[in-house]
Amino acid sequence: MAPAVPLALLALVALLAPGLVVAFPGCDYPPHLWCSSPEIAVACQAESRCANLSRPAAAPVELSLFYESLCSACRGFLVQQLFTTWLLLPSQVLNITLVPYGNAEERNVSGKWDFQCQHGPEECLGNMIEACLMHEAKDFSTYFTIIFCLESGSSVTKNLEACLQVYAPDLDKDRVMACVQGDLGPTLMHHNAQLTEALDPPHQYVPWVVINGEHTDQLQAQAEASLLGLVCRLYQ
Fold it and tell me: From which residue to which does the signal peptide run (predicted)?
């Protein structure tokens, strides 16, 4: 068997004699293409020389939070666990879905959706403000920061303008309130109701945490104790 040709020697040959192509068995590519893709690098035994090739990113941990805007336990989890964890982790590690609805109930009255919330009409208003914020802001980092501001402040429903001025001055309060007071807000809340009612197992309390499509008592307890530690253990 012929001795293996060192990769460095092959590269030198390619530089000094570009018309002469020396390849490994299974490598049908000229040396200047060996680092053009992970598959070619493997075929040409060039992985160690291809610093530009990175490993594919792991799938992010998917977390959905089902909550109510005035629920004290929900506010505590969102502010102290979820927002802090999101700030500390790289953006590709954790995807968050917020579903403000919780233990509310809906009914169709003359073709329009009407909602009854656990903590009264003020909570229904808070839920709808946050749903409309998500719709109007679009960008997660923008609306999550505003929702954090609302949930950590003295009033979820009265601090919208102040939170927008600090965290999203380009987002007009009137746009958000037009959504709340028009037909769009109830439509968004109806969608959140459907998402909540479709939970399997059905939610029994709030905050209700679903991670990678799964809810268990163990996951819930770990999320409430140390969400950052849980996400870091789950991220592969």
Answer: 1-23
Domain that holds residue 209: 61-234
CA distance 203 to 70: 17
Rounded Cα distance, 130 and 7, in Å: 59
Residue with the two structure tokens 């709030």: 206
- The per-residue pLDDT for range 78-110, each reduced to its tens digit, is 999 999 999 999 999 999 999 999 999 999 999
Are residues 173 and 161 in contact, defined by beta-carbon separation less than 8 angstroms?
yes
Q: Provide DSSP, 47-93.
A: GGG-TT--PPPPPPEEEEEEE-TT-HHHHHIIIIIIHHHHHHS-TTT
Same domain? 95 vs 117: yes
- The structural domain count of the chain equals 2
- Regarding whether 73 and 43 lie in a shared domain, the answer is no
